Amino acid sequence: MDTRIRGHDEKKKGTLMARRKRTPRTRLSPAERHKRSREAQIDRVMSLVIEGCSLATISRREHMPRYRTLQRWRETDGAFRARFAGALWFQQHVMADDALAIADRAAAAQRGRARAKAVKLQIATRNWWSEFHRKEALRKPPATDDPQSELLA
Fold first, then answer.
1. How far is CA 118 from CA 50, 102, 125, 130, in A?
2. Are 149 and 82 in contact (CB under 8 A)?
3. Euclidean distance between CA atoms 116 and 87, whole angstroms
4. Which of 2-6, 53-57, 99-103 shows the lowest mean pLDDT across its residues?
5. Whether the Cβ atoms of residue 49 and residue 87 lie closer than 8 Å to each other
């Protein structure tokens, strides 16, 4: 019996290649495919929220749920609501870091009177930062009941 695979005999002349056994593929039910697709969308939504996007902006993107769907998930799905709260909490810290970096760059780039204004901005930003952290010290990050959530891990 010839065990050569067609199309491969030119590459490996004179050798016989064993046929590979295929592993059986499990077919997913439509409900399971929908569930996995929804989970992938939720992961992408959380990433975009952390980057600073609003739900309205996210819903306008291609292959994203509509705004009303995102609102419904937030209202009815406890796991989504907890992950969304965690993403917003993380987003606040990302934006605070950005504000500090902007103020530092402005102070470093200016000279003369403009530098004095930039330093005032830098001081004001630092004061805001300390107030932000004082308030944050009183709050804990939101807990999630979703064991798969990697945002808060």
1. 28, 10, 10, 18
2. yes
3. 36
4. 2-6
5. yes
